[in-house]
Amino acid sequence: MKNNIWFIIACVLVFCVGYNMNDVAVSFPKYKVAVIDVPTVLSNSSEIQELKRLQDKDMEELNILISKAQNELLNEPDKSKLLQKEAAYRKQIETKKKEIDEKYNSKLAKINDNIKNVINKEAQKSNYNLVLPTGMVISGGEDITDNVVKKMK
Asked: Would you say 67 and 93 are in contact if contact means Cβ atoms under 8 Å apart?
């Protein structure tokens, strides 16, 4: 008899705890989700377009240096001078390429931070809890791409 009473009390307690947990789960705020088309934002960014122009210019300078090195090495008859010039040009080209990559990566990181800040400000202004790229979302979410693109210009 005592075991039955304890069993009934335990069942009532488990039921009450489960019922209260359901109330807590239901009372959590709902998430407001936004989506953004990242390729559209990047293609409309004037900073990205300027970075591409600078990258193209730097790569053109590097290609000119490579062409100059090739022409000079082809016209060098002395093997020892050829090896010296080849090593010097190789070092110069590698240094130039490293400079270009470092400059590009640092500017790209700054641009990425600026874009994230614009997206965060837009999300906070419209009270979004979560912003996802459109490629990750099958259905749902409000598209804020146009607002972000307007703020970046």
From this structure: no
Residues 13-38: pLDDT tens digits? Answer: 666 666 666 554 455 567 788 999 99
pTM across the whole model: 0.68
d(CA 117, CA 120): 5
Q: In terms of domains, do 71 and 14 share one?
A: no
Same domain, 72 and 9: no
Which run of H or E residues covers position 132?
strand 130-133
For residue 132, what are the domain limits? 31-152
For residues 129 and 98, state if they share a domain: yes
Q: Quick check: 76 and 85 in contact, CB under 8 A?
A: yes
User: Helix, strand, or coil here: 76?
Assistant: coil
Q: Quick one: 106 and 139 in the same domain?
A: yes
